[in-house]
Amino acid sequence: MLSIISVLVLALQATGQEVVFYATVDKNPVAMGDIFTYRITLENGKGDIESPDLKNFDIVFGPAQSSSLRIINGQQSSNLTLSYTLRPRGEGKYTIAPAKASVQGKAYTTRAIEVEVVKGSSSASQAQQQNQTGASRAQQSSGDDGLKLQIQSSKKSAYIGEAITVQYVLLSRYTSLDLGETEFPSIKGFWSEEIKIGQVNWEPTYEYINGVPFRKAILRKYVLFPQVGGKQTIESANLSARVNRNIFSMGTEVNVSSNKVTIEVQPLPVGAPEGFDGAVGEFDFSVKAERLEVDANNAIDLFVNVTGKGNLSLLDAPEVAFPEDFEVYDPEVKDRISVSLGGVSGTRTWHYLVIPRYPGEYAIPAIEFSYFDPSKEKYITKTEGPFTINVKGDESLVNETGGARAKSVVKQTKDEIRFIALDTEKLTPRKRTFYNTAGYYILFSLPFLAFVGFIALRKRRATLLADVAGIRRKGASKAVRRRLNAAENAMKNGDSKLFYVEIFTAIYGYLGDKLGMPQAQLTKTIVKDKLKEANIKDALVQEALYIIETCEMARFSPVTEQSDKVFYQRTVEFIEKLDELLK
């Protein structure tokens, strides 16, 4: 009775296995005059197999039939294989049509296989095969035939800042597999965002390699943004596993290495708009002021929004030219960003709190946002505004001549009415009038001198505004302090990852402003060359490269050689020293 039950259990387990039907060849291409093996395999099923027409080949031997039955960890699997030994009849490319099978009334077909027949011996064929596939074959994953580790990239070529999706994929033909250690390489030259995948599970569908089905599991996923031009290589990952473990055997240990992936990173095209600050992707841009009419000394909320898909996490706020009489606070950054296989998408919002101090009508000039769209291969600039703000309040605070606003209200003296002096003995008659005195002519000339000074200042202001690089250099110190404050806040909150993100943004933004270059076009090589051109000492140049490289490495593994506080102080000291030299 027990044996009957065991047979029924095994039958149910075998029935639960998925039927798989595929065809393979043992070599491709094949040299003229050489032989190769064509196999048709039916797994976990019994039925009739119909071989395809092999008219382009001579059948040297076959079909030879073999079958096997395996039980591992209580799971039963069967295998039925038809093998043909074939010799090609001529050179060229020939397609072996799909084979067919019928299992319990359900039809199955294999994939067609294209076989290339070339001149020469088998060794020459293998050499030609290697030459034809080139670097891609040299970078195939290594391991045994039943277990493979692959790095799969969505693109082989991209612009600086353009999103690339990379995933580490495990392929297995083993029914019993216990994973050991996996070593993932550090990804240099890219800004990375990891896609959370949760628990690693086998995919419901198979992946075929040369007609052979493999179970597929995704170990990790990343969205990468290239930061450096040229050929950038993602190095191999390494994995150890134990296969075919059961109650009678410890199984076999297998070590595999993945392929390497080389990405050709192209620099962004020349001719970037003046306001371009490294945004790459597909974006929408909007600006909203909560109200355009307000009483003096009351706050206005201004929201600047960038929505879309691209390197949102690396964007800085677009330039907003607020009137001088507005008190403006540093913007609060709010992110609603998600990371998926489709890339990084969502919204980044800069919330400005501004307080107009004096009544009048003010204009906030048009706000521009420029980005590069890789799909269209061109720069795009979007504009919002201008915005007119009507500030109500006491008109007496505004000079009738329209000049500068009063900064404070005149206070009364301690005694509103002074005592009238009765002693006239100390009074002396005025011997001459103010007319024709030096003071008279000085006061008479003041309006003319003020007008000349106004024209000179206006001309100087226009010159300074035209010098965009100069403006960026002068504002670099203020901008980097704001970014360093964000890094310090992240450090205090214990968010080490965000801390290094803010340091990276601060140092690249500061160097871009000081060197007069868009941040997206900066690389470590360019930073090194530009600083040396500016006669910066080699020690400071190396310090800049060290800070950048440490921030890049912190994306992949924690920094242990020093604390965040020490690194922060080191960065501040570097900026202070460089600021003295790059005026």
Tell me how many strands there are. Answer: 31
Report mean pLDDT, rounded to a whole number.
79
Assign a percent range to the helix content: 25-40%
Tell me what portion of residues adopts beta-strand conformation. Answer: 35-45%
The total count of helices amounts to 8
Distance between the termini: 94 Å
* Low-pLDDT ranges: 1-15, 122-141, 399-404, 406-414
Computed structural class: alpha+beta
- Major pleated sheet: 5 strands, antiparallel
| Rg calculated over all Cα atoms | 37 Å
- Which descriptor suits the 3D outline? elongated
Description of the molecule:
The chain has helices at residues 2-16, 122-138, 438-466, 468-492, 496-515, 524-533, 538-554, 564-581; strands at 20-25, 30-31, 36-43, 47-50, 57-72, 75-88, 92-96, 100-103, 106-109, 113-118, 147-153, 157-159, 164-172, 177-183, 190-195, 207-209, 212-226, 230-234, 238-243, 252-257, 261-266, 281-289, 293-295, 300-310, 326-328, 332-340, 343-356, 360-364, 367-373, 378-384, 387-392. The chain is of the alpha+beta class and 583 residues long. α4 packs antiparallel against α8, α5 runs parallel beside α8 (564-581) and α7 (538-554) runs antiparallel to α8. The strands form 9 sheets. Strands 11, 13, 15, 16 and 17 form a 5-stranded antiparallel sheet that branches.
